[in-house]
Amino acid sequence: MFATYLRKYVSNGLSQIPKLSDVAKLAKVGNATVSRALNGGKNVGSEAMERITAAIRELNYQPNRVARSLKGASSGIIGMIVPSISDMFFSKCAEAVEGVVRQHGAVLVVVASHDDDGIVLGSLRQLLLHNVDGLIIAYNKTPERELIGALQAARLPVVGIDGPLTGVGCTSILCENFEGARLATDHLLAHGYSKIISVQVKPDLYTMRERLRGYNDAISRGHAQSIEEVVVDRDSAAAALLRHVPRKGPPVAVFAANNLTARYLYEAVHFLELSIPHQVAVLSFDDFDLADTLTPPMSVVQQPIEDMGRMAAKLLFQPTGARGMQEFPAGDGSILLSPRLVIRQSCGCNLWAGGRARLGRVTGING
Amino acid sequence: MFATYLRKYVSNGLSQIPKLSDVAKLAKVGNATVSRALNGGKNVGSEAMERITAAIRELNYQPNRVARSLKGASSGIIGMIVPSISDMFFSKCAEAVEGVVRQHGAVLVVVASHDDDGIVLGSLRQLLLHNVDGLIIAYNKTPERELIGALQAARLPVVGIDGPLTGVGCTSILCENFEGARLATDHLLAHGYSKIISVQVKPDLYTMRERLRGYNDAISRGHAQSIEEVVVDRDSAAAALLRHVPRKGPPVAVFAANNLTARYLYEAVHFLELSIPHQVAVLSFDDFDLADTLTPPMSVVQQPIEDMGRMAAKLLFQPTGARGMQEFPAGDGSILLSPRLVIRQSCGCNLWAGGRARLGRVTGING
DNA sequence: CTGAAAGCGCTAACAT
DNA sequence: ATGTTAGCGCTTTCAG
Question: How confident is the model over A150-179, as pLDDT tens digits?
């Protein structure tokens, strides 16, 4: 609002924030020609083009995004709705997205939904009112009719991330949660632990369900027993450990379905004065800061977070079909990115390498 | 752009996305009256107001922010420029800001500058083109002429965060870095360590300079020797430790100027197979996930991150002076928020409380 | 208290 | 290839 203010009272001469007509005047052409020069340069003579380019440079002109947006062209705004900004997964994701968005000359609006459907819907509406050019949505539950409807009605490029946006007819960028969990559990099975327990929070979330599926797939193929625990804090994690870890006897293993559970587990293990991995082996989905600095360093399944974010953003800007983004998207679909199994010590590997062997062997998921 | 598309081809009847004139028609009043009703309701008869309210509800109308913005009213967009989105400090900060911004019916554009002045300036320009209503900027260096000029010319509410935006004539929300560092160093001095080393990364940043000042203030008042080290990774941290920690002899203490250095230090200590705090005591500025889960739990100076973010955002929306935000801001100024000293074990406290004593004594900075 | 009318800066027919 | 014109949806004088 103040920029306008300024513009109004100051821009009699050649002062602040030039507009398209200033360029036209200086280049001695009509407004439309400048506009055409700006948008692809079709139907603009080379002489006119030169003068326009010069004028633009001289005035340091940049088109007003708001006016452009009002007229129906792109707004230069991409919206991103995530459950939380402070969660490391989403903040890394957002940073990757923002980089791509900026490269395209647009800006990124981020909203934290706190897993509240009211906020999701309200923000969606808000973003549409801002005429966003595209939307990235991390939604971990089954989309409700209302959300699906709103998204379809909006007819703009949408891509899901972390969880699938089914029914909307858009692409979703997902991590191979099932595969990753299966691989992790297989790794634990290979160690020969007597029991392998799965521990998670919020079992209703899509990612958690997939990881649990992967765990159970490996468990059943390994003819082991499925033990599913849900924890909410250190104490419940401790209770779960108490239920399954014998004071003496062979070590058991735990597959932590995300880094939060891994943390609770780690705290619980310390609280109970158990030893990792001699009494309890731990393997976690999601890497986290300091995972390799803990004693012992924690083995994890690492998601390609930045790749996911970049890919989602790129998809938004990618024209699909002959008519460009209007045909976006082609239909429901997912792009699955592979996580990596990062073996450190908490799973029972690398034990005799001594204190200095901090560098975990890194194994790609596909070999 | 698609919302417009939609609007254009569908909204003949009472379909998608109603506009102000639809409300006016339904309420049988002129557009101007609806607009007035929307903006404060001055000069609107109570009957007209009622019909308008009813029409708005019936149509589920919400004003188009783009049009509003073009006309010169508020855009409903707040911009935030931070060095990094994935850094925990800024992501927590951004989340707090976003909450307040959303409460005010606006949206938050976040840009990651990666400490690159080109990006800062470019994004600033971009944001102005979007007609943002206000700006929150985390800038950790001395603002350059160009940045100051651009910010002043924009004449909109700006608040600095984390680092002071001097010369711009705006308020900055800062943590008492000096005080926090002094307090931390005093605490270490009270333990009676033979040496207290300060370790930091990027010593040119404002926050780092302040913390170093605080450290040195305490050191000189404690008649101790100032030892300043700059580290960039685990190995340089190890080298620094090697320079100052005797293989045998009294323990030394380290004041880590932020959580990154603390992490490097922690890794280096493990790498060198030293013991915390028996050979090296550590106290870190900035709390971090897992700080209380490490062995031993790390004592830290905790910044009131969310408070800082919330306060910055609120300031943006706070009308200043009789003419509202136009008079914003009153002038250069800082609001200092106190950090808290969270004592865990790495500084040498709580040592004999045993493994279960995880809950650090928490001391407010002022008492 | 209210409505008609003039734009905000830009784009997209439609002429030329 | 270029200029003229008519809006996008809203706010805001300016008359009534």
Answer: 898 888 899 999 999 998 889 999 999 999
- CA-to-CA distance for A91 and B251, rounded, in angstroms? 38
Handedness of CA B141, B147, B153, B156 (dihedral sign): negative
In whole angstroms, what is the distance from residue B187 CA to residue B195 CA? 13
Q: A108: which strand partners?
A: A78
Top residue of B89, B97, B102, B109 to mutate, by most chain A CBs within 10 Å, is B109
Nearest CA among B213, B272, B220, B278 for reference residue B241:
B272
Residue A157 in contact with residue A133, Cβ under 8 Å? yes
* Chain centre to alpha carbon of residue B4: 35
**CA torsion B256→B261→B264→B268, rounded to 10°?**
-30
Listed as ranges, residues in chain A with pLDDT below 70 are 1-15, 319-331, 351-367
CB half-sphere exposure, A168, CA atoms < 13 A: 30
**Closest residue to A107, CB basis, from B127, B270, B288:** B127
Omega prior to A296 cis, within 30 of 0: yes
Which helix (H) or strand (E) segment holds residue B254: the answer is strand B252-256
Nearest Cα to A101, choosing from A122, A75, A124, A123? A75
Pairwise CA distance, residues B245 & B240, whole Å: 9
Q: Name the nearest CA neighbour of A267 among A236, A246, A244, A243.
A: A236
Q: Do A86 and B102 touch (CB under 8 A)?
A: no
- Chain B residues with CB under 8 Å of A6 CB are 153-155
pLDDT at B280 over 90: yes
Is the full-model pTM beyond 0.70?
A: yes
Distance of alpha carbon A158 from the chain centroid: 13
Interatomic CA distance for residues B330 and A188, integer angstroms: 62
What is the pLDDT, as a whole number, of residue B187? Answer: 97
What does the H/E/C string look like for A147-210? HHHHHHHHCCCEEEECCCCCCCCCEEEEECHHHHHHHHHHHHHHHCCCCEEEEECCCCCHHHHH
Cβ-Cβ contacts under 8 Å for A96 (sequence gap 6 or more): A305, A306, A307, A308, A309, A310, A313
Token digits for A203? 């079992």
Q: Contact at 8 Å (CB) between A300 and A294?
A: no
- Is B285:B301 a contact under the CB 8 Å cutoff? yes
How far apart CA A348 and CA A340 sit, in angstroms, is 18
Q: Do the Cβ atoms of B347 and B282 come closer than 8 Å?
A: yes
Cβ pairs bridging A and B (under 8 Å):
215
Sequence letter at residue A361 = R
